[in-house]
Amino acid sequence: MEWSAPLRRTLRSRESLRRVALVIGGGLLAAHGARAVDLPEDRAEGLFHVYKGGGVTATGPALLVRKSVADKVSLSAGYYVDQVSNASIDVVTTASPYSERRTSYDFGADYAYRDTLMSLSLSHSKEPDYTANAFGIDVSQEVFGGMSTVSMGFTRGSDTVLKKYSPEFADVVTHWQYRFGLTQVLTPKWIAAANFEAISDDGFLGSPYRAARVFGAIVPERNPRTRSSRAIKFRVNGDLGSSNAMHAEYRYFWDNWAIKAHTLEGGYSRYFGELWLADAYLRYYKQSKALFYSDNAQSETLYVSRNRQLGTFDSVGLGAKLSYLWKKVPGKYEIKANGAWELVQYRYKDFTDLRTGSLYSFNANIVQVYLSATY
After folding, report:
1. What's the rounded Cα separation, in Å, for the pair 19 and 325?
2. In the chain, which residue ranges form alpha helices assigned H by DSSP?
3. Taking the C-alpha atoms of 123, 127, 131 and 137 in order, what is their torsion angle to the nearest 10 degrees?
4. pTM (2 decimals)?
5. CB-based contact 257:245 (threshold 8 Å)
6. CATH number at residue 26
7. What are the pLDDT digits (tens) for 101-120?
């Protein structure tokens, strides 16, 4: 028994979980005063994360090490583990609960040349029935005396999909992602950014385990083998003075499966003395359903899915993070202790719990505890 493709995307994506691994968000206007050609800081991070909600529990460690070479190249390596126990509504209504492990490795290299920063990335993740590999390249260029930064990038991914206890089943998925961004310094205290991305997927885009309903009967899910999607995001960061800062962002997503989604987020950060930094944010997400999604289809069609992640739903996320400067030796290193928590409420508008016949909803909690050191 394996976890479904939507759960994989839920645990991997920033949209739903912020990828509980190595992307450590927050900070008091983290981009304030930074130039695009500056290499990332030498740092090491060790994290333990917990996700619990909707019958799914995922826990595990994450490690990241980054080191620069000759002030021109920065190398990084990351390791991430998910130990998943799955008794989600999809599993308990059509199969049996199960446990499994996913392991991910990430490698990166950044090269700075004059006003240009070039980045390469490699990633590999593996679980019993799913293997994913990706290669990415990004370039950012400062213009107008460092007041503006233009960035562009490309990622290609290749996945292999298997089905446990069914050795005759095997399929592939290929992903292409193109992205473009512009960051603008508005004033000494305000920064704005706009980003656009286009994604194309080709191959097996469903789950070999998931079932749909047609006239009340359980049938295998049938999804199209191609998908094209677009997203645009606007963000503004502002230093409010007196150790206060804020950020606000809006993201719009649409694809050729007729899904449209809106994300709104606002956050506030504040220093308490020189040792404590607190962050809080609120995020709202709303999505419309795919053309072929149905809770219980009343006609036979070429494609049909009961994947609730393709249905109509919204979610509200409330998060907080607290950082403490544990130890600092000027000019040598500093160590911070961090804790983060997020509560997300999911409400489905056209997906019912087969056990009760009621519309489905659940709450999820995400907790991170980690140490970060710069040196």
Report:
1. 24
2. 5-12, 14-17, 89-94
3. -10
4. 0.88
5. no
6. 2.40.160.40
7. 999 999 999 999 999 999 99
